[in-house]
Amino acid sequence: MKFAVIAFPGSNCDRDMYRAVANVLGADADLLWYETANLNNYDAILLPGGFSYGDYLRTGAIAATSNVMQQVKKHAAKGRPVLGVCNGFQILTESALLPGALLRNKNLSFMCHQEVLTVKNNQTMFTTAYSEGETIQLPIAHGEGNYYCDEATLQELIEHKQIVFTYQNNPNGSIENIAGIVNRERNVLGMMPHPERAVEQLLGSADGLRLFQSLIHNWRETYVANA
Ligand SMILES: NC(=O)CC[C@H](N)C(=O)O
Question: Where does the signal peptide begin and end (predicted)?
């Protein structure tokens, strides 16, 4: 299974993401520059955090217009995994690969600390290594992580079990304490907390590791075991 980590101008978690996948998991991965990236030979696309285009206009809005996001949309349409973390999540909502939007945190401040999350849905390719209802700890680092969607969209998210992670102590004002959601097809996950910064105990938590392990395990089950 091969991972692509896409860096935009202003990304700053691309190396953390690459390191988590390549060095800690030992998976095959490349760090790609958005302008020259060709995603044809990759199985999973990882959109890392940061401040793409300086967060101008709206967070993620300018990156969402890039050519590489057209490739990401084609990849997603094939049912292949796409993970967006923090600014990656913002790019996914701006690209309409996920519903809703990320607004300024309710206290209008940038926040950077550990949060306790609940795993609400472990029946996705990203979360099978967790138990449903399990609490895990991951760091957040954002100024615009306040997830918002309209009431009809929220009912759809609930009905289709698209809410994957929630905050125990909602730090940013997100509706329904939402920290991460998947699309209806469950192959595109966006989340504000950073699993790539929680892949070994030295970093304060290793709870993020199982997200990447889930992905590799489920990929093998689908594409290798049955080949
Ligand atoms: N770490 C990040 O990805 C930061 C996300 C985003 N630019 C914000 O502050 O909301």
Answer: none
Task: Give alpha helix (H) positions in the chain.
Answer: 14-19, 67-77, 87-94, 151-159, 209-219
Domains of the chain listed by start with CATH number: 2-224 (3.40.50.880)
Kindly give the number of the ligand 1 atom that is closest to the alpha carbon of 60. Answer: 7
Contacts of 5 (CB under 8 A, 6+ apart): 14, 17, 18, 21, 29, 30, 31, 32, 46, 48
| Residue in 86, 105, 110 to alter for ligand 1 test, most ligand atoms within 8 A of Cβ | 86
Q: Over pLDDT 90: what percentage of the chain?
A: 97
Q: Does the Cβ of 50 fall within 6 Å of ligand 1?
A: yes
CA 129 and chain centroid, separation = 16
Backbone angles phi, psi at 180, to 5 degrees: -160, 140
ipTM: 0.94
Give the start-end residues of each E strand in 73-167.
82-85, 101-103, 111-119, 135-142, 146-148, 163-167
Give the model confidence (pLDDT) of 87-98 as tens digits: 999 999 999 999
